[in-house]
Design a protein that fits this description.
The chain has one domain. Helix content is 83%, strand content 0%. It contains four helices and no strands. The chain is rod-shaped, with a radius of gyration of 32 Å.
Length: 125
């Protein structure tokens, strides 16, 4: 009779231990799921930012290509006279051997714009 109580007691402890491990595992999975969801939200924000940046760089690249080729850029994306002068100064400074970062800093242009202008100048030569 006493052996039956011991078996029931041990079985009860085993079931409590199994339930505890199951609850811990469920909580751990929920925590990992929340971490992954948070990372996905951050990645989506980064993706949208990169898409906007890519669109801006493509627009700047097209504008610079048209300026280098001597064409008038479309009116919607037409740079002002000051911007055209900045691009002309950038071409001059790049021809003089200044690095794109120095040119960008001197003229207040974006580094990507100056690097793109330099690549187009090299390609045109």
């Amino acid at each position: 009779m006493e052996t039956n109580w011991q078996v029931f007691f041990i079985d009860g402890l085993f079931l409590l231990l199994a339930a505890g491990i199951g609850l811990w595992f469920k909580a751990w999975l929920k925590e990992q799921h929340d971490v992954i969801d948070q990372r996905l939200r951050v990645l989506e924000i980064h993706q949208k930012t990169l898409e906007l940046l890519s669109a801006r760089l493509q627009s700047a690249c097209m504008m610079l290509e048209q300026l280098v080729e001597g064409q008038q850029p479309p009116k919607s994306g037409r740079p002002s006279r000051g911007e055209r002068d900045s691009y002309a100064q950038a071409r001059t400074l790049l021809d003089q051997g200044l690095s794109p970062s120095e040119v960008a800093r001197k003229l207040g242009l974006g580094l990507a714009e100056v690097e793109t202008l330099g690549r187009m100048m090299r390609r045109g030569e």
